[in-house]
């Protein structure tokens, strides 16, 4: 299995890459990193640079061959699972960290401590609405404590404001959207806030919210001696 | 839009969402939705043929049929019909908004009376006359602000009470209508085979306009469907999604001028209603548009949940075409520069609008397609160019 960290977890929010590595090691999962990991192409696709994205995809696909690809990012998950198929006909075996962690829990390879905490979960657009993964992260949360849902959740979840190149081109707008989202999150009165996309974590924390990636959350509650 | 207007708009949106939730999950509406999806998808594929069918049907029905390639032609055609008037009346219409009719008539010294209450309020507002929702144009304004607008513009002192405001505006509009002989409206759907125009309203204002000497109806080619039955399905679904009520108070089906043959079977036009009904079918870039852009039935459901629209309001959109789908349409109604300035890159591509859209308009996909083209002609944020360069150089955006 290749652990494809994605640009944000690899370079900006490195804690996510580190936490994921900790979980994988604790569960005894064999994995490797790519020698030269590059962008998956998502950023280019969303901002109109489709031709450049395609070149990058064709380059990446050589490195991926016949391997399961583990990703941390909702954006990578969508592009590898959906856009690679649509654009270059590549059906890749992709798994998101939240899905793998959930499997590891079910298989008893990792065990999480119970807590009485109220835990909110923000559905990233790409992982949730675009590709339908809502339950794996929720199952993990329920192993630990009480899951609290926001006014808009699952497929109706509201965007954190960072997608589609908005964070780079319109930072002020991105901030306004994030602050509306934060208001909605805080209304649930959570002790902990989790998500499953480094980009969402980055934008929400840039606007003052303490939010944990599912990898960090799992590490936080990991039972040392399973 | 100002911060307090955005706040009022968000709370209005919340009320709308709550009001319609049961209705849009009603099995009958879900069945209707499937029917309308098929109607819309089928219709946009055969616009040229439907235009020809409509041309014949309207003529048979005794209506004047005109075709406008673009907005200039449409405005010329309208002007030609109303040039001798001092004042004309209109109903709420995104198509007339698209033409910029109000500014155009202002230049030509012809006064325009907005008959829809929300539109009239916005018209009387001294600045930012853009609507915030296609069906509720003034729902970003609080009643005290509206009272202030009305008091100042009509030079009266009006209480911040919705009914008092309504009565006052009604009186004012009815007074103005006495001087109007021509009513201009849009249509919500057009039945090509039957040669009928279908209009939806609650206030009754469209009925008043259709009873004037001349009724001019300006409508986009994207509103064409085959039959009255199809058109009614479309407007029923639009009403459910736009307002949360199953039906509007009025659905007018207009298939000809007012006429009688009660005396010796001799045909006389202009009994109570319009003696002359003129249909102006407008293309203005529609047939060049991506097909999915034209599925829209105009309910405004997309903007109610849009994370971008909720924080910036009508700045994200083009004229009355609000939100992402409006931005996409502006690429075809105008050009790349217009769509760039309307917010082509403000969309986070979150896809929630597609889920909320009764016909599933894939706006984020449309946006991506337009961005691709737009980037090639230079309308792309420089930050995205830098990111693209960074990826090219070192394999990552950072």
Would you mind describing this structure in some detail?
The complex is a heterodimer of chains A (226) and B (398). By secondary structure, chain A is an alpha/beta fold. Chain A contains twelve helices and seven strands. Chain A folds into two domains: 2-100; 111-220, Rossmann fold (3-Layer(aba) Sandwich), CATH 3.40.50. Helix content of chain A is 52%, strand content 11%. The longest helix of chain A is centred in the C-terminal third of the chain and has 17 residues, at 171-187. With 398 residues, chain B is of the alpha/beta class. Chain B folds into two domains: 3-287, NagB/RpiA/CoA transferase-like (Rossmann fold, 3-Layer(aba) Sandwich), CATH 3.40.50; 300-392, no CATH class. Chain B contains 18 helices and 14 strands. Chain B has helices at 3-24, 27-44, 47-60, 71-82, 94-99, 101-107, 117-124, 143-154, 162-177, 205-210, 228-243, 301-305, 307-312, 323-333, 336-342, 352-356, 363-376, 382-394, and strands at 64-68, 87-90, 111-114, 182-185, 189-191, 196-201, 214-220, 224-225, 250-254, 259-260, 268-269, 276-282, 317-318, 321-322. In chain B, α14 runs antiparallel to α15. The model of chain B has no long low-confidence stretch (mean pLDDT 97).
Biggest pleated sheet of chain A: 4 strands, parallel
Order of helices and strands of chain A: EHHHHEHEHEHHEHHEHEH
CATH class of the largest domain in chain B: Alpha Beta
Strand order of the largest sheet of chain B: 1-12-7-4-2-3
Main sheet properties of chain B: 6 strands, parallel
Tell me the strand percentage band of chain A: 5-15%
CATH topology of the largest domain in chain B: Rossmann fold
| Distance linking N and C termini of chain A | 23 Å
User: Which structural class should the secondary elements of chain A be placed in?
Assistant: alpha/beta
Classification by helices and strands of chain B: alpha/beta
> What overall geometry of chain A do the principal axes of the alpha carbons give?
globular
